[in-house]
Design goal:
The complex is a heterodimer of chains A (321) and B (297). Chain A has 321 residues and is an all-alpha fold. Chain A has helices at residues 2-5, 7-10, 27-59, 77-84, 86-119, 124-132, 139-150, 158-165, 182-207, 211-219, 226-236, 238-253, 257-262, 272-281, 287-312. Chain B is globular. Classes of the chains: A mainly alpha (321), B mainly alpha (297). At the A-B interface, helix 3, helix 5, helix 6, helix 7 and helix 9 of A face helix 1, helix 4, helix 5, helix 6 and helix 10 of B.
Chain lengths: 321, 297
């Protein structure tokens, strides 16, 4: 602490004869301060992020059932086990289907809502709040409403009531994987929950587009509507879109809550995290195999993230603007 | 603000706008409001069902004919989750409040300090350390729940507030947001404070923080919402029902043998209330903060 307050005294004393750098005297004081500020965070980061990652890699090479201090080294056996496990590989497939639908639909819906709200002249704040409000709901709460009230497989569920008006029979939305109606339940729940949040991002971006661009386009004869949308709005939203897609992908990989709660007793439609949950914390408590799966999933996410970043020029194109 | 052009054209034209603005304006804006209204209606249905079901009797919910309104509003239902003996709902609400508040305060403290250090204090290895923080963004926290659980259980923190709160405090993302924010903070203010004899520490607490309350409030709301709504980690850590957060308690209702509809919906409605308050009173900060947290690439 004393070094902080005596900074001014420390300045003229070039005690350490280190390599020539300007403001040499300040070095000690700023180094101390740097650690004072970042130290607590970095210590926590090492203990609660880096150590688990390292431990995970280490555990993945051991047979570790019901124990976290295993002694039987099995090499890549856990990895082979997980890759041979149809459920785990299937969960990656489940994720792929899920991401392929949820990323574009959320992107489109949140952008669409942002465009609508942005054009409103009255009650803009009201509608923005309505679309944003589901963000206050947890995935657990939404799963409850979806499972017990909207997509209840019996006649009093809202969806079955509505299709009943048209003479369609009740559908067991979640209890049957064939046809896979459960996808509709899961996708609508997530769409409802997350679109409002991304709408806010798009709204902010829309409001940052200089209106001169639209005026210039109007002078050049661009028709308001699709033309200005396509040639001005969309390109101007590029940076935001890239970030949104990236966030959506990462969020999709982490999908757990609604799958766990909507499909708790079923064996179908398990994304990777649910599968890992049952592997590591289920009956077998197989930490080794669970860790191997977590390592593979992490690698996959890193690769996809890097690839997507490269593809869409994340963090590159917009800085030169 | 500095535009000299009239403000009339502030909203940019976009998809679906009629070509002739003047004549099409009425038609266009009617269509616009109908489209927005329909979307809003669909977005509100789940909330409506939540309220309707939580104030109904079970026969009203499961009856043969769909009812828009409960035949008789059951205000008594409000206290029922707290009287229910199968799940200690009251305890889970208390747990969630404690965890949510401490999680928010802790995250703000730890991450803002680190973000400031990384943004402002010159240090030879600052860049390397910053990359080490960035790297953790690539590894989603949810993927490391297995080893994190192993770690926390070997510390003996299962079923404790420590286990629920402490591992979540070190968010690389929040630290990153603070760093980006502090990079844009006007340097002159701090320099004036330092000329007046304050060290980094003093300048931070007396000048930087008081001038950044908006940003802190925005991050606080987002952090609280995420903490309140998180499910996977509390599920993993809360082995004993006394350590359940409200989300875990809600989830347990779904797997219970007996389904008590109005109870489940009332509990869900109560669990959302704190966040609705946050939304109503802090929405401006929240929206600003989300927009500001600089998802700009």
């Amino acid at each position: 602490m004393s070094t902080t307050t005596t900074r001014d005294l420390a300045r003229p004393a070039p005690a350490k004869a280190s390599k020539a750098k300007p403001r040499r005297g300040l070095r000690g004081s700023s180094t101390f301060n740097f650690w004072l500020f970042t130290g607590p965070f970095l210590v926590g980061l090492v203990i609660f992020v880096y150590v688990p990652i390292g431990w995970s890699i280490w555990l993945s090479f051991f047979e570790a059932r019901f124990t976290v201090t295993p002694d039987k080294f099995v090499g890549f056996e856990n990895y082979r086990f997980m890759l041979d496990d149809n459920d785990f590989v299937g969960s990656l497939g489940t994720f792929t289907v899920f991401a392929a639908f949820i990323v574009p639909t959320t992107w489109a819906l949140s952008l669409g809502l942002a465009l609508l709200v942005n054009r409103l002249r009255f009650m803009r704040a009201f509608f923005r709040s309505v679309f944003f409000l589901p963000t206050a709901c947890s995935y657990v709460a939404a799963s409850l409403i979806w499972k017990m009230s909207i997509f209840n497989g019996v006649r009093f569920g809202l969806a079955n009531t509505v299709i009943g008006w048209f003479g369609v029979d009740n559908i067991a939305w979640l209890a049957n994987p064939d046809p896979p109606w459960y996808w509709l339940v899961i996708l609508t729940a997530r769409l409802w929950l997350q679109s409002g949040f991304f709408m806010i991002l798009f709204l902010a971006a829309l409001q940052n587009i200089p209106s001169e661009l639209y005026e210039a386009a109007a002078i050049d004869g661009a028709k308001p509507g699709w033309q200005t949308f396509w040639y001005i709005t969309l390109p101007q939203l590029r940076a935001t879109s890239t970030a949104v897609v990236l966030l959506l992908l990462v969020a999709a990989y982490q999908a757990f809550d609604e799958f766990f709660n909507l499909l708790s007793k079923t064996t179908w439609g398990r994304p990777p995290l649910v599968e890992l949950y049952y592997t590591a914390l289920g009956q077998n408590q197989d930490y080794g195999a669970g860790s191997a799966g977590a390592v593979m999933l992490t690698l996959l996410i890193v690769i996809v993230t890097l690839f997507q970043g490269k593809l869409m020029g994340f963090g590159r194109g917009d800085e030169s603007k | 603000m500095t535009t000299t052009a009239p403000e009339v054209r502030k909203t940019p034209p976009s998809a679906g706008e009629p070509a002739r603005r003047r004549r099409g304006a009425v038609m266009g804006s009617t269509g616009l409001y109908i489209a927005t209204g329909v979307a809003a209606f669909l977005f509100l249905i789940p909330f409506y069902l939540l309220v309707r079901n939580s104030l109904s009797t079970d026969p009203d919910i499961t009856g043969e004919n769909w009812k828009f309104f409960p035949t008789d509003i059951q205000w008594d239902n409000i206290t029922e989750p707290f009287r229910d003996t199968t799940v200690d709902f009251g305890q889970s609400m208390v747990n969630s409040l404690i965890v949510g508040v401490l999680h928010t305060i802790g995250t703000l403290l730890v991450c803002s300090l680190a973000g400031y250090g990384l943004a402002r204090i010159p240090y030879r290895h600052a860049n390397k350390i910053f990359y080490a923080v960035l790297f953790t963004l690539m590894v989603p926290a949810a993927v490391t729940f297995v080893p994190s659980f192993v770690l926390v259980s070997s510390l003996g923190w299962v079923d404790s507030y420590r286990g629920l709160i402490i591992p979540g405090l070190f968010s690389g993302f929040t630290c990153f947001l603070f760093r980006q924010y502090f990079l844009g903070f006007p340097k002159e203010l701090e320099e004036a404070a330092r000329v007046d004899g304050l060290g980094y520490w003093g300048a931070y607490w007396r000048v930087v923080v008081p001038n950044s309350l908006n940003f802190f409030a925005a991050i606080a709301t987002i952090t609280f919402i995420n903490g309140w709504n998180s499910f996977l980690w509390p599920l993993v850590i809360g082995q004993d029902p006394s350590a359940w957060t409200v989300q875990v308690a809600l989830s347990s209702y779904m797997t219970n043998q007996t389904v008590n509809y109005h109870l489940i919906f009332m509990a869900t409605a109560i669990s959302i209330l704190p966040l609705l308050f946050v939304f109503l009173f802090l929405q401006r900060w929240l929206v600003q903060g989300i927009a500001q947290t600089g998802i700009k690439g």
